[in-house]
Structures are given as structure tokens and as C-alpha cells.
Amino acid sequence: MLDRYILINHIKAFLLILTVIIGIIYAYLMGEVFLLFKDKSQDILISYTINFMLIAFFYMNAFVTGIALLVVFRRILAKKIDLLAQSFGISPLKLYSSVVLFSLFLFSLNLLCSYKLYPESQKNLYRIEREYKKAKEVESGLVRNLWLTNEENGEVRFYNFELVDISDGRLYRFYMLRVKEGSIKEVVTAEVGKWDGERIKLRDAKIKNLVTGEELTGDLDISYLELDRIKPLAEKPEHLPMKDVLMLSLLGDRTGLNHRYYSYEMARRFFSSTLSVFMTLILGWVYLRWRNFNIAIVSLLAVFSLHWFLLNLMRSLAEGTNLNLFFILMLYLPIPLLSLKGLYDLSKGFRL
After folding, report:
1. Cβ-count burial of 229 within 10 angstroms (0-12 exposed, 13-18 middle, 19+ buried)?
2. Does residue 44 contact residue 132 with C-beta atoms inside 8 Å?
């Protein structure tokens, strides 16, 4: 009965706080659209608002559920209901297990929406801001300055494409190096070509054999990777559905792509989805352990800030260093460890 009371009040507080935040955001978006956008209309405002709200919910729901938890617990602690429950041998975790289940529901919802809905919303926001706010054309279906590799029989080929049109496979300014035993054996250049399936067809390619010094000019057909496999490269990683992010992270090792960045993108979505669970366990532990609202508020701000600091740090390391990806992801470990500490203490209970 008590856990139902806590859950109902927690959901009420969550929805109330979320409604207030949505109202504030909506007022801001109205001002932004009608004051800063070069093209203004009600349809743009509706589309911009819906996509913005979805992304705001993804990034803010853990913070909102943390505030809602503190609001509810403040009432419970004021009436000393938690102490009464513990006197009957009810652990703090059992006292608010329904709230933990609610945070698990948010985690499942966020993870499910991270598969396609949230990335699509971020892509729509990017398009709306670029077209209607900055009045710039959105570049679609093009991959620029693409570097790929292929290793076979001790020979490595490095491919560079200045521009690939993913829609029809046309490519421009192709450059290839064939390297064996640490030295360049052959250089191939071509101004235009076409990527059709697994075939890269080059017209009037210039082929120079650096071993013999022989130079040839003619059409060239190279067997390589299926074009469909690199189509997701035309989008930002945060705009891709999860299946494409996973594919690129697995593809990177044998093609020279920075697969670490796509692996980081999967981790970012997972950690952001799980934050509501981490926040619930950590704040419940801090508040019920020390029974101080100010300490709990500071903990809320600290955990939320630490989450974003660690994600940005991990992104910088994944993009700009050669550190092992496993060690980069381990930087996020303090938050799960704190939540496990909270889970253990809450299940054990505190001495009265």
C-alpha cells in the first residue's frame, strides 16, 4: 500500500515538473522561431517543437525523475514514514521499489526510442535549423574525403574518395595506394568513376607502377566493399538508427573507419538511457542515508553534471586518441559503482 502511495505521488510529481519544463521550452521555441528563424510558419513551429521535445525528454527525464523523487521523499521524511517502515523491518529499497521499477520503465522506453525515434528527431532538428533558421541548403547523400583500407595477402590498399554520391554511386577524384612490405608499389588516380555494388569502375584512370616506373592510362575495375555498407556514412552518427551505428562499428576494423566513434555512440545512447536508474538509486541512497535535502540536491546536480562531463570526455578520447576503447568506456564506471553502492545499502537498510 505504501509503495503504491509513493509511486503515485512520484509519477504525479514527475508529470507536473515535466509539464512545467515543457511549457518553458515551448515559450522559448516560439520566441526562437518567430524572432530568429528566417522562414516562419505555424507548421515549422509544430515540427520544430515536437522534435525538440522528444530530444529534451531523452536528455532531461533522468533529471526530472530525480527532482520528483526528492519532492516525494521530502514529504516522507518530514512525516518520518521511512523510520516507521524500518522499525517494522522494511528495507529502504523495498519502501520505494515501485519508483525503481518506474525508472526501469523509463530506461526501457529511452533505449527503445534510441533505436530510431530519437536519432530521426535529431536529424529533423538539424534539417529545420539549417533550412529555416540559417537559410542554408542541407547536404544529403554525399560523403566527403572518405578514407578506406583493404588488406589481402600481405598487401594493403588505401582508398581515398574526395566525394561519393551515395544515391547513385558516382565518385570524384579517386586516389589509391598499393602498399606491400612497408613500401608503396602502385599509385592509381582518377577524376571520375562509379561505385556499383561491389565494383568501383574508374574512367581514364592513371596507373603508375613505382617498381618498374611504368605508367598506364585506361579504364579500371576494382572489386571492393558493397556500396550499401557505407551509405550510413553520409549521416552524422547521432542521426543514424542503431542498426547502422552497429554495422559501422563492426565494419571499421577491416576498412579503416574510426569504428571507435560509432562504438562510443552506442555507449552514449545506452548510458543516457540508463541514467534514470542510476539517478534513482544514488539519490534514494543519499537522501535516506543522510536525510538532508540540500545534500540530495547537490548530489542530483553532481551526478547529472558528471554524466555529461564523462560522455564528452569519452567522445574526445574516442575521436582524437588511439586509447583502447574498453578503457575509454571504463571512465563512466564511477556512476554505475555509486548506484551499486546505493542499491546495496538500500537493500541492507540503515541503522535507526
Report:
1. middle
2. yes
Q: Which residues contact 74 (CB under 8 A, 6 or more apart)?
A: 293
Work out whether the CA dihedral 271, 264, 236, 35 comes out positive or negative. positive
**What gap in Å lies between CA 152 and CA 351, rounded to an integer?**
66
In contact, 314 and 332? CB cutoff 8 Å: yes
Cα 219 to chain centroid, rounded: 42
pLDDT, one tens digit per residue, over 157-195 is 889 999 999 888 899 999 999 898 878 889 999 999 999
Domain ranges of the chain: 2-116+260-348, 142-229
Q: Write the DSSP symbol of residue 233.
A: G
**Element containing residue 163 per DSSP (H, E):** strand 155-165
How far does the chain reach from its first CA to its final CA, in angstroms?
23
Q: How far is CA 195 from the centre of its chain?
A: 30
**Is 80 or 316 the better-scoring residue by pLDDT?**
316
**% of the chain residues with pLDDT over 90:** 53
In order of 132, 186, 266, 345, the CA distances from 211 in angstroms are: 55, 8, 44, 70
**Distance between CA atoms of 48 and 164, rounded to whole angstroms?**
30
250-255 — which CB contacts under 8 Å span 24+ positions? 254/149, 254/150, 254/151, 255/148, 255/149, 255/150, 255/225
C-alpha angle 281-284-287 in degrees, rounded to nearest 5:
145
CA dihedral for 231, 235, 237, 239, sign (positive or negative): negative
Rg from Cα positions in the chain:
27
Cβ proximity of 30 and 40 under 8 Å: no
